[in-house]
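User: Hello! My lab partner asked me to get a predicted holo structure for this protein. The small molecule is flavin-adenine dinucleotide, SMILES included with the sequence. Please write out the structure tokens.
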Amino acid sequence: MAEDAQLIRRGPGTTVNFHGTVKGPAAERWYIANEPGGPSIAGLRKTAGRLQALIQAAMTAEMRLRCHGARWSFSEICDPAGGWILQTDQLNWQFRLSASSLDPGFRGIAEELLLAQCGASIAEINAELENNGQALRTSGASNGQTIAGAIGTGVHGSAVDVGAMQSQVAGLHIVTATRSLWLERPSDPVMGADFASKLGAELVRDDLLFEAALVSLGALGIVHAVLLRTTGRYLLRSWLMPLPTADVTRALNTLDFAGAPLPLAHARPYFFQAVMDPARPDTMHCTVRYKQPCPPGHVRDNALKSGYEAGNDLPGVLAKLLDVAPAMRQTVVSLLIKSELRPFADRLGLPGETYSYTAARPGSAGSAMAVPVGYTSRALDLARRVFAANTGAPVIIACRFVRRSPGLLSFTRYDPCCVLDVDGLDNEAVRTVMEGVRAAFDADGLPYAQHWGKLHGLTAARVRSSYGSNLDRWTAARHRLLPDTAQREVFSIPLFDSLGLNA
Ligand SMILES: Cc1cc2nc3c(=O)[nH]c(=O)nc-3n(C[C@H](O)[C@H](O)[C@H](O)COP(=O)(O)OP(=O)(O)OC[C@H]3O[C@@H](n4cnc5c(N)ncnc54)[C@H](O)[C@@H]3O)c2cc1C
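Assistant: Hello! Below are the structure tokens for the protein in complex with flavin-adenine dinucleotide.
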């Protein structure tokens, strides 16, 4: 058996996700840690060996193996459903790379690269980057996800001219039962063959495999490390204000902000988000952020923050409704909006100071659907009609915006997308609204694709309708990476069986 001082078996148990929306039995819970002695490529290689041994052990035991990052996914994508789980969040080494380790064909500068091990959290990555003059181009609303978990479902924020998190990825280290691969795009070589060989990996430059592995859903092997292309450190200047919906309707459907009554009339927002209480559709609570250079002397606030502040974690906000009677829906939602979407003006912070920590609030639930931006008003209208038939549901609808993002199964697949978040308390009324919105989109023929890590009501037909031939390409890539049934089985879950993703 694979266990040793770094790979520890904790026996069978129940696994629960961050917000408690999914609980499931695990036949075995594995925890993996790095070699003692600090980050090194030799240490990465040893850990990759352990990961491979564990995959082989799972296959011998005829068990499925599900990696857990931070378990922030609301959906059953983390549910081992009686199989094994591997907790990866202690694999959090990060590496800056020297120019000498890069491929001669690399176009860029070594300083922009960060190699993060799968379990490094977004908070840890932000701290490493922002204390050293760099920053992520985008992230989600808060910072607790691991990097492999975040790209594994295609996490996005609302930087209007930037893709989802996986759009920053330039290389991936993937471990399967029989292979260790360093994957890159042929058109974008970054690491030299020498690096791959020190890692004990094959250097594979292949568009199909790379595009499949970017959003892997944990179904293509273990993502051991992720190479990120970052940008120079910048500040975000943020405002939050209620605006008449009519004044931002054009911006919501075009991302052309001309004429919208935003704080800086002539600057293009870096970030824009609009939140609506569907019972008060004439007002949008808009968060707008502008990017500006960060002075070299800026000292980062490294304290782990909690609370809403300039961040925008709607599931966390709405979870406060938990203890309240549904009949009080309007009073409570209005009060919450007043306190949690309280207007503010001209706050300045690094991205990692802006998108901060969120405490677990069991009982809240989130769903998210990407639609082409030109359909935003139509999608909002359909969602509001569903709400009108379920007025007790404590939901809020948010519009966030993302460029088309790489990855065959990236749900932010329209250019650009509006991601419509339907978030609320995890009760029956909210689930009814969520499914009602999906059904309304289906009936209307509205193009949409759903966040893999949120509550989704996915069916094989919905997946096919959202992804079309990309689904076949992803499956073909999966067959190349995991060439026999036993290898594919180990990285599947019942959800994938039912959606045709384990074909
Ligand atoms: C408070 C809160 C706020 C959120 N905000 C946003 C937001 O702003 N934007 C957004 O898009 N989403 C958001 N989400 C959803 C969440 O960010 C995603 O579901 C994300 O994928 C969770 O990352 P994680 O590290 O917790 O991964 P997990 O939920 O643990 O795992 C996600 C997937 O990745 C796989 N995986 C994890 N590690 C590995 C690995 N090493 N190798 C292979 N597969 C792996 C898992 O098997 C699973 O399939 C939010 C969720 C919460 C709870």
